[in-house]
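Bumping my old thread because nobody answered last time. Still need a sequence for this structure:
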């Protein structure tokens, strides 16, 4: 079909927005193919050892320490503090000077 996994995922996530619309646009695909695309991408993301942009090593939750600030790429920030009790990162937004959740 000449499609890549990323073409299908992009169509599903951003362009078309629903499984039915993707299957309509690409009649050679079926629901099992879309499930395989999702499984492949999840596996690909989980197997990364380094951030593809910054080159920094990625850390699993088990390696993060409570209250420690980490520098890297986070949603809207470059610095975040790990909260062990809540199992989440609190992002520091330098632009606004506030801690956001």
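Sorry it took so long. Here it is:
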């Amino acid at each position: 079909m000449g499609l890549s996994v990323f073409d299908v995922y992009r169509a599903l996530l951003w362009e078309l927005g629903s499984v039915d619309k993707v299957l309509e646009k690409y009649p050679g695909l079926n629901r099992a193919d879309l499930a395989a695309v999702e499984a492949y991408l999840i596996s690909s993301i989980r197997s990364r050892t380094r951030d593809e942009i910054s080159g920094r090593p990625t850390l699993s939750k088990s390696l993060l320490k409570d209250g420690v600030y980490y520098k890297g790429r986070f949603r809207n920030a470059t610095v975040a503090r790990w909260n062990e009790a809540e199992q989440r990162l609190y992002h520091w937004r330098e632009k606004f000077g506030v801690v956001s959740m």
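The chain has two domains: 5-46, 61-100. Let me know if any region looks off to you.
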